[in-house]
Amino acid sequence: MRQTKLDDFLELEEQNKELEKLVAVEVEKNRQKDKIMFHQNKMASMGEMLNNIAHQWRQPLMELSSLFIPIQARLDYDLELDKKELKESIVKLNDITKYMSNTIDDFRDFFATSKEKEEFKLSEQINASLNIISSSLKANNIMLEIIIKKNPTLVGYKNEYTQVLINIINNAKDILIQRKIKEPKIKIIVSETKKDVLISIEDNAGGVNVKPVENIFKPFFTYEKIGGTGIGLFMSKLIIENNMNGRLWVENTKEGALFKIITPKN
Ligand SMILES: Nc1ncnc2c1ncn2[C@@H]1O[C@H](COP(=O)(O)OP(=O)(O)O)[C@@H](O)[C@H]1O
Ligand SMILES: [Mg+2]
Predict the structure, then answer these.
(1) d(CA 33, CA 51)
(2) pLDDT confidence bin for 180, thresholds 50/70/90
(3) What percentage of the chain's residues is helix, strand, coil (to nearest 5)?
(4) How far apart are CA 206 and CA 204, in angstroms?
(5) How far is the CA of 72 from the centre of ligand 1 (A)?
(6) Separation of 96 CA from ligand 1 center, angstroms?
(7) How confident is the model at residue 48 (pLDDT cuts 50, 70, 90)?
């Protein structure tokens, strides 16, 4: 009797081990899948990014090329060069090239995968997102309002956080354009409580036309969008909820969609 029980037990133990192995394999498979989606999301953004860089650089390039026209004219006509004017032009030149260089840095940061969690200021990541998309918002006459009540520090992968902000703002932009909204607007509000950091992003495009609204966070779920992949919000939720212990959700307001991200302070 005793012996059988032990045998049963050993058998069970064996089965458990097998099961554990199977689970480990499945978990690993899922991890790989998530990795691929992560990559796809970045690649999908890449085309749009290049477009954004082009936008972002057009203006400063124009300014650069016109900066020295009067100086060249003076040289051509052998006229005296005004030292003060020349100096001002050089200062402007420095400002413009600095701006262009910052744009490139932001893009490079965005595409670099951060290896370790680090502390970052929320406002800096908002700025990085805006450096990447503000020109295309401007080009589409989308008004952006930002209210930062506090400038909290977060801990996590900052590029991923930027990616989330960009996903949400880009979605709002897409819908505002696609629905041809008059006076399109995006409003970003940052606040904090003792324990959490809250950022809300609201547009006035009329809201999410899907029921229940949570469906938009499912992988490959895309609705009414031309060329949608349905990866962006799924990835965003994964980043906030799995990597930062936070929560990302959406509500419809009178104006449009309101996305909220809550992350705990440390
Ligand atoms: N600001 C928004 N207003 C209304 N619907 C939205 C908004 N943002 C996202 N959605 C809906 O959520 C869906 C999923 O978004 P996302 O995961 O980024 O995929 P994609 O943008 O490729 O369609 C969109 O197709 C759209 O139907
Ligand atoms: Mg999207």
Answers:
(1) 28
(2) very high
(3) 60, 15, 25
(4) 6
(5) 51
(6) 35
(7) low
CA 27 / ligand 1 centre spacing (Å): 28
Q: Structure tokens of 221?
A: 């779920």
* CATH class of the domain at 36-264: alpha beta
**Residues within a 6 A CB radius of ligand 1:** 167, 171-172, 175, 203, 205, 207-208, 210, 216, 221-225, 228-234, 257
What are 101's two structure tokens?
A: 């260089």
Report yes or no on whether pTM surpasses 0.90.
no
Does the pLDDT at position 149 exceed 80?
yes
- pLDDT, mean over the chain: 86
Encode 19-81 in three state secondary structure.
Answer: HHHHHHHHHHHHHHHHHHHHHHHHHHHHHHHHHHHHHHHHHHHHHHHHHCHHHHHHHHCCCCC
Residue type, 28: E
CB 114 within 8 A of CB 160: yes
So where are the chain's domains? 36-264
Find where tokens 């809550």 sit: 262
- What span, in angstroms and rounded, lies between the C-alpha atoms of 188 and 243? 22
Considering only CA atoms, which of 209, 128, 210, 197 is closest in space to residue 169? 128
* pLDDT at position 112: 65
pLDDT computed for residue 81 by the predictor = 86
Distance 60 CA to ligand 2 centre (A): 29
- Say how far apart CA 179 and CA 232 lie, in whole Å: 20
The β-bridge relationship of strands 196-203 and 185-192 is antiparallel
What residues flank ion ligand 2 with Cβ within 5 A?
Answer: 171, 232
Tell me the chain's radius of gyration from C-alpha atoms.
Answer: 25
Q: Which residue reads 């030149």 in tokens?
A: 93
Q: Looking at the predicted structure, is the pLDDT value of residue 152 above 60?
A: yes
